[in-house]
């Protein structure tokens, strides 16, 4: 078993850790720690400009009423 010592700023160097690695620290008991390395999920593929245009055109949030119809329905007579 390899041992490490904390420095003046309470830092501990992990032997196999890479710069930028993120760990979840859990205190399980008096003086016991469990480190779990967190893995960032991969990014989804980016859409092309043509795919974005098609998605915007087919969006269900596109209003189907004209402004005049909407005014007529929302104004009091």
The SSE order reads: EEHH
The computed structural class is alpha+beta
Proportion of beta-strand residues = 15-25%
Instruction: Tell me the number of helical segments per DSSP (H or I, 4 or more residues long).
Output: 2
Number of strands: 2
Q: Please compute the radius of gyration using only Cα atoms.
A: 28 Å
What percentage of residues falls in helices of 4 or more residues? Answer: 10-25%
Low-confidence stretches: none
Coarse shape: elongated
Give the N-terminus to C-terminus distance in angstroms: 83 Å
Mean pLDDT, rounded to whole units? 87
**Strand arrangement, largest sheet?**
1-2
Give the biggest sheet. 2 strands, antiparallel
Summarize the structure.
By secondary structure, the chain is an alpha+beta fold. It contains 2 helices and 2 strands; from the N terminus they run ββαα. The chain has a two-stranded antiparallel sheet.
Ordered list of secondary-structure elements with their pairings:
Blueprint: E1 22-29, E2 32-38, H1 49-57, H2 67-74
Antiparallel strand pairs: 1-2
Descriptors:
77 residues; alpha+beta; two-stranded antiparallel ribbon; elongated
What does this structure look like?
With 77 residues, this protein is an alpha+beta fold. The chain is built from two helices and two strands. A two-stranded antiparallel ribbon has the order 1-2. The chain is elongated, with a radius of gyration of 28 Å. The model has no long low-confidence stretch (mean pLDDT 87).
């Amino acid at each position: 078993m390899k041992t490490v010592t904390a420095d003046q700023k309470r830092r501990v160097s992990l032997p196999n850790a890479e710069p930028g690695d993120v760990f979840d620290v859990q205190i399980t008991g008096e003086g016991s720690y469990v480190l779990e390395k967190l893995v960032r999920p991969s990014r989804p593929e980016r859409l092309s400009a043509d795919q974005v245009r098609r998605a915007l055109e087919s969006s269900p949030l596109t209003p189907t009423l004209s402004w005049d119809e909407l005014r007529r329905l929302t104004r009091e007579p």
